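Weekly sync notes, structure subgroup
Attendees: PM, AL, DS (notes)

Item 1: joint prediction request from the bench team. They want all two components modeled as one assembly rather than separately. Inputs as received:
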Amino acid sequence: MKISYNWLKNYIDLDPAEHSPEVLAEVLPLLGFDIEEYEKLGPPQLNNVVVGQVLEYIQHPDADRLRCCKVSTGNEGEVHDIVCGAKNFKQGDKVMVALPGAVLPGDFKIKASKLRGQPSAGMMCSAKELQIGQDHDGIMILSADTELGMPLNDLYTDGDTVFDLEITPNRVDVLSHIGVARELAAKFGLSVQYPEVKASIENGSNGTALISGVEVSAPEFCPHYTAICIKGVTIGPSPKWLKDAIEATGQRSINNVVDVTNYVLHETCQPLHAFDAGKIQGGKLVVRMAEAGEEITTLDEVERSLTADMAVIADAERPLVVAGVMGSLAAEVDQDTVDVVLEAAYFSPTSVRATSRKLGLSSDSSYRFERGIDPKGVTYAALRAVDLILEVAGGRVDGNQIEVGAEPPTLSEVQLSPDRVRQFIGFEVSDEDIQNVLESLGLVIAVHNADDGSVRWEVSIPSYRQDLQRDVDLIEEFIRVYGTDKIPESEVVARGISTQDHRIYTVNEAVADYLTGQNFDEAFLYSLRDPEETKFFFGEESFKVLALDNPLQSDQSHLRPSLIPGLLDVLKLNAARATGATRFFERGHVYREVKGQMVELVSVGFVIVADQLSREWRQREVADFYTARTLAGEILEIAGTAASKLTFKPIEQSQLWQPGHSAEAGDFAKMGFQATAGLLNMAILKDRWDIKTPIIAGSILMTPKFFERKAKRGRHLGISNQPASAKDLALIVDESVLAGDVEKDVAKFARKATQGFDCESVRIFDQYQGQGLPEGKKSLAVSMSFRAADRTLKDKEVNRAFEAIQKLISEKTEYQIRK
Amino acid sequence: MQEQLNAIVAEVQKSAPTIQARAEFEAYKATISGPKGALTDVMKGMGKVPKQDKPAMGKLINEAKTAVQAAFDQVVERIEAAELAAKLGPAIDPTLPAPDAARGTLHPIAQVREEMVALFRRIGFSVAEATELETEHYCFDALNIPSDHPARDMQDSYYLPESLKVNNVSKHADEKYLLRTHTSTVQIRTMLQSQPPIRIVAPGRCFRRDTPDATHSANFHQIEGLYVDKNVTLLDLKATLDHFVKTIFGPKAKTRLRPSFFPFTEPSFEMDFFSPDLGKLSNKWLEIMGCGMVDPEVFKAVGIDPEAYTGYAFGMGIERIAMILQGVDDIRYYYQNDVRFLKQFA
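Output from the run, pasted for the record:
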């Protein structure tokens, strides 16, 4: 909101030095009113720019658009030849002349020269060229009594500074010059002089000759409505003071009556509306709810269709104003207006806000109404506007102030104790300091001393400060005006013992340590992905469930079900830029569909380019499925699942993973975790990412609940010092049989076959397929290690166990023992 | 016999240095000290030596054995040295490039996040987590942001369809789901789950429906802080945040609390800081976080007695702080993940 320094001076005595615009620019943000920008208006300091008079002019002999002028600047006998392109002056007009040597804004140097062969020693200037105003339609014409030769800066002494303040939504009262003046007065110890209202009008419900009355059929929307009729105004341009003020707030001056309504809005924060009484059909104003589909063309010349939850000010025939938001062309005051009806009302903040949102239309009025204007400020603003209209446009008040409804109730008292203030802020201040600050803001304090020595204050709140409802609100007012710079610096006091970090965070820390140690760089990616991609990789149901209601961009409409596609984007970008990067991971949340519902999951994903990207004097082996499986298993182990509990099953069909070269373990929906590892689908990666190298990847999903598991503490089981005894076995099995299953079977049999000692480990250490074996078969070599806790094992007992194991294999499985 | 011994020793001393390989050595050794070896033969002849000559003869044999063994030891030593040299291969060149990949790096935002979390952990805060998917209640209502507050406009938040059911994010009543717009939701979830004293920081991802540009990103990260206990004061808030700023931005940094407004704190402030050591950003006030004393309405929403407890809360954008610290002028760099960018912060 734009606040003019000159305008503020109407209400407080700002000392040019002590309260200069520069000082205000520092003070206002510290009062809670941040400055988006502030600019100096009015002419800059310019030399050799003086008042001149056009003595005579002739058409330029060689240029249709130019005139050759003789201009005097007051010195007897001195005449300046100036060629000028403007046509809006006549002989004898007083104008601003920049003489040779002047440097106009934009570093425009004025020199004596020739224009199309005619001498020109100077320039007659427009308001814009001198930064006095926006007017650039021709040169400035000064009033005839302006003194010849007067320098520009003597003529225009009233430069202004305009602050564009960012007002927080709780402070509607500061959306006005009086509001800002009140704040500065509190800070600087000044007093506010409110403009005195001269008009004296009786309140009443009777109509006047102009309108028979006001009818409010939407009292919830409009609890309080007033109208004053003014007859016989003369519409015309606003006087300079009014025009300057309106323009300082960034608006366009329209005419004297409309400008007054806008002026009072920016002065008091009360929006007003002026109707041309002559255009009100049926002689009556009606505040009613709109009819669904009712149409109105608002002042911004947009035709709008209203809904039944919006209110309008209407005449007998049509809506004239969208209540609280914007007027229409239908009843606007224009140059032919003679009689005016001035509206001042209080509209319900939530209703105005809803209307403004629905219409996508915000105005200075709606902005204030929706924040809740001063419920008791309606009449003051109306009378202030009447005074100003009579002053600048003439006319006379006709009849009463027509009033329907009443001022909404306001909260008037808040309890506060100075001890509470001190306890809350944590440092010493005197009762008197607190009291002074609150009183400087216009609050009135009644002190109650209790018998026990405690002090209680009853603080009266002005109607324009409806944001002050609780003791903490008053504490805020105190600290705001007292100054946050007076809060002492102090040591950090860390009382008590801190609690445990959430495991999601600590596990993520450990995972990042692990993966960076495995040469992965961490990537950060967007959580929103493309709809088509979601459907392609995760199916129709996910596509439905993961969709946002209101995406901003069509390719970011779905919550990501996996980190892998984003990581592929990263590989693609790095490949395109030939950065040589081959390993990335991300930690983040992903979303999945389970039985038509969404589930939010904690995820870790990683990708590895399984190819030699660069020539090296010594090559390392590239990653494969087992690399990814180990990484995935370790990550889950860090998160708290024993790697031994992971049973990977081959993936047989997938768009993302390469069937036959990838596998999956766990089930997040049933077990709380899931891991997928292996090669990504080569054909699809080539198709969608143009990635032709094999990519090995891993994706781990964990439910937040999974992290609530308590970590298990290990217990010592004893270790044997006796020597181990080993046996190997080769088994011929169908090529579809999984080594893990064979390992499990053998381990099971070994447990059965050993008594009095243990089979410590069973491990597949070789796999063979090809010559010497039947088609469709493979051979798995299994090693077993036996050990007793208390003695060296005898060959005999180990052999007996080994034979028993082989017997069990032959009896219970299809595996053939290779002799 | 003595001549025989001398001849054997002489032969060994002559032949041994020419032996190159272990197998050759074993074969040669057999011809001397093997069961049918020359030396063994001589030793077998000891039986026939007259008794009185035996000590002298024995001495001679021992001398010969020692001499032969010494020659053999030299051979073994030489062969082992050669074998080791063969095993080791040529000497390394310590300046060849490493064939192994270097350690990976944490993302620059994660680095800054960890630095901040570590700082707050040292002064008694612990890390809290919550979901990114939230409901209007936990994101707005419970934080005293009423339904007609501008922050709840459709254009500011990403909403999920009304019909959506979420398995693991609880609703308060029948409100809509959305992606959390700030980490302040963690304040609410934490206060509902635990009793004061509560002292947490909650780093996490947030979402705003903003058109992406140099300072706006569809998702970004915040870190939230909350301290609720008896007698937590404004003085404590300032002390903690001053400590934060001076630790992160250096002891020369100055701070100020600029009064502001947030529905969930009262009083509310923006904290600005001013540093002489920030390159282009030096010597001007930079806004870095919002903070304030927890509003009693928030306490009421989570069932904490505002008469008994007070608290402070703060929230800041991690990207914003990272951009200041790392001199990054466009937030989008962080989400491109060009490894040349990522490695600049290693």
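Discussion: The beta strands of chain B are 126-127, 133-135, 177-179, 198-207, 219-229, 254-262, 265-274, 286-294, 310-317.
Action: AL to compare against the crosslinking data before next sync.
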